[in-house]
Amino acid sequence: MARSRLVTVSPLLFAMLFVVVVLSSSFADCLVSLSLRAIGQMVIMGWDGTEVTPQIRHLIEEHHLGSILLTAKNLKSAHQTAKLVQELQTIAHQAGHLQPLLIALDQENGGVNSLYDEDYICQFPSAMGQAAAGNADLAYKVAKATATEVSAVGVNLILGPVLDVLTNARYQPLGVRAVGDDPQEVSQYGIAAMNGYKDAGVATCGKHFPSYGNLDFLGSSLDVPIITQTLEELSLSALVPFRNAIATGKLDAMFVGGCGITNPSMNVNHACLSDQVVDDLLRNELGFTGVAISECLEMEALRSEIGVKTGTVMAVEAGCDLVLLCRAYDVQLEAVAGLKLGVENELLTKERIYTSLRRVLKMKNACTSWAKALNPPGISLLSKIHPSHLNLSINAYDDSITVIRDNEKLLPLNESMHQEEELLLLTPLVKPLPASSLTKNILEAKNKSDSAPSEHDKWIHRDRGVIMSGEGVFRELGRSLARARRGKLLHTSYTANGKKSLVVVAVSSPYDFAMDKSIGTYICTFDFTEMAMAALVRALCGSSRARGTLPGTLRKSRKAVKSRQHWLVEPYDRDRDSNGLNDLLSALARAAAPNHRFLTTTTAHSFEIFNPNIEESHFVVRNSSTQALYGFCATYHTQGTGIIGAIFVDPTKRNVAIGRSLHRRALRALIQKRGTKKIQLGICFPGVFLGIPTDDGGLKTWFSNSGWDLQFPRRLANMVIADLSSWSAPEGLLQSIQRANMSFDLIHGLENAETVLAHVSGNANPEVFELYRLALQETKSCGVVRAKCQRGGLVGTVVICSPGSQVAGYVPALQGGEEVLVGGIIAPVVAPGNGDLLVIQGLALMGLRQNKAHKSGRSVLSWVGEEGMEGLGAMGWEVLEGWEEFTNSVENVSFLEG
């Protein structure tokens, strides 16, 4: 006769869960049964739709789902939200959940609000806008008001505050969602917001650990952005706000990002799946004891690389307590199945599961109860608090509006303009922010006004049947501005021309034109919600004074944060400096990352092109006693474009302003040349640096801090087929080229090159034109492949060079040494059109055939644009080096200061 066995858990877990009685079963069976019910408390899930679906109900009832993430796709109004949340909690209660659901929401204000209701839910400035107001107490009040409102509809967890430091502010996606680039200021405002949430009875979740403030983006949707800073660098900046928030003891949860980390001490593909990040860094080093929430595991990069089942187990093994699955029901079931398999395979231990369970239930105990969850106060409370919150919102926006410059004294407009003068308003076409009912009505009305259309309305509807999403906010801005100044106003797009007094308004990041002193009057709103636009009108027209300040280090004197040391910069002298430059290049090669091997084949000769149509001027910082070079900068000038082709500093002499001294001298020299219209960073002839290496965030930060506008890069790459002997053309490529009726031929010599040079001149930079001229002159070892369409017109060209050619000497990636002969395929130039990808593939194919004929063991394709990388990847090409080329207008000379 089988004996019964009673299996119990600790008193704490007994109170939280249940006692399991099992007859004739093993202890492992008991553990699995107990753990499966706990699994539901370890996931947080969402769905699309404004009503409870059978799928989300099934997850709550059958899989014991304990946490829900609501997004804007779920929420129509405050009343609907309260009703929806109450229904979700009722389902959980009737299903036997011992504690209510966690209901989480992104409600950061500014441009990131999941819940908007003009009648009951107030809009407040973004985190950066609040910091611009210069009052941490205001941030506390805004956070408390926000949390009070969302708590009234049943939300008990806000995914905030944002604790990221914008270490590289000018091109990071967070923008105004973050306070700024000063770690202590981010800490101050982050903790103020956290206290506001807590005092309103809502749980808090810091984000995005370890930092989304300085990410390198590799381009493809399958590539995860990465952090390249060392742990020491992170500790001094990015981790400071997280450490300070944890030290208060009031932070309930931490959102762990999905970014990668690559530095000498850590190589992590996804932070939230790494015990180095969660258990070691977050818990052991920073001392966090709350709930760790993973980034959404539905992200494409993780799904394609690892799979959700394995990824979910890895997240829990790493130390995450709640695993986020945003909306796909099949993926959510896959995650639950993965956790069950993890338990059955004993990858997830009883202790690991119960540790997470204790943390989650402790947070629930602190922020909710069944009495509170089943009876949210809803509209009755919101209607009472709305007037005071609206007044707080107006004051907060007025305090946040920031005038960075007003050199021409244009503000307020009612003092600088006569009423009869016409005001021109230029606005962008943008994606929408959370819209008020007013904007929604504008979108739905489709200009069904009885009155005659204004010039403003004519522009909004020109050539379009409906208003584009996002235009409603700026349309109302135009109307408000016209009313406020009681004068003429014309609203148009950015295409307007003419010299007028200009007021530039940044309606998001202040970094856009902060350093461009050609803009005399510059004002910032930090978001483009209707409340922000209303505050802007008040500031422009003088009914309120713009009192805001710039965030973080922008507020400080730029000269104060730059090194005051200046180095003597001299022109490069070949006889005197070439040996020193070779020594400098060798030192750089030894200190460079493995993927910068091109430095090992770069020599002093690589920078001197001796081309009569390209003026070259190089500069050095040197020790005149030892003749050692501490720094080198290569510059070129052709057809109105000044180019920085390289800038080097001895690794042992960095951070003492050598690079800044070279940079300043080079720019002055280029701008002073007659006819200079633009300045370019990166060059393909010589092709040592095509731009800033994409994997060097520090160098990008340096140029950004030196005044370059790095918002609009041209992404380029050198690509390689390492083993040409084993390569073969992909199946179907030749047939596709034949179906397109495309033909190719190879030419040598300038006498046959008139159409080639005309094509390159019309479709590429002037230095590329000179590269082609050199290649065509080198008839024995170089040629140009032409691609022609069915009608015989030229649609593409590429330079082909055999190993050891003169052209190859200017492209270090083509230097294979004695190991292997490297064939070059350089500077594909394709006329834009529907078939340009096939043209690039065809040119590469013809180039590979020529390289094989020259007995090359490897092929390198240099200066490939982003538009061709994916198609070439399908042929077997791999990225050898990635670059970003930048071009700035010569009028932006603020980077010559300091």
Automatic annotation (TrEMBL):
Q: Which residues form a coiled coil?
A: none
Q: Which Pfam families match?
A: Glyco_hydro_3 (PF00933)
Which Gene Ontology biological process is one annotated for this entry?
carbohydrate metabolic process
Superkingdom is Eukaryota
Every copy of the Glycoside hydrolase family 3 N-terminal domain together lies at 39-362
Q: Which of UniProt's keywords are assigned here?
A: Glycoprotein, Glycosidase, Hydrolase
What are the recorded GO MF terms, alphabetically?
hydrolase activity, hydrolyzing O-glycosyl compounds
The protein's matches in InterPro entries, at most eight in alphabetical order, are given as: Acyl_CoA_acyltransferase, GH, Glyco_hydro_3_C_sf, Glyco_hydro_3_N, Glyco_hydro_3_N_sf, NagZ_Beta-hexosaminidase
Family membership, please give it. Answer: Belongs to the glycosyl hydrolase 3 family.
Can you name this protein?
A: Glycoside Hydrolase Family 3
Organism this protein belongs to: Podospora anserina (strain S / ATCC MYA-4624 / DSM 980 / FGSC 10383)
Q: What is the lineage of its organism?
A: Eukaryota, Fungi, Dikarya, Ascomycota, Pezizomycotina
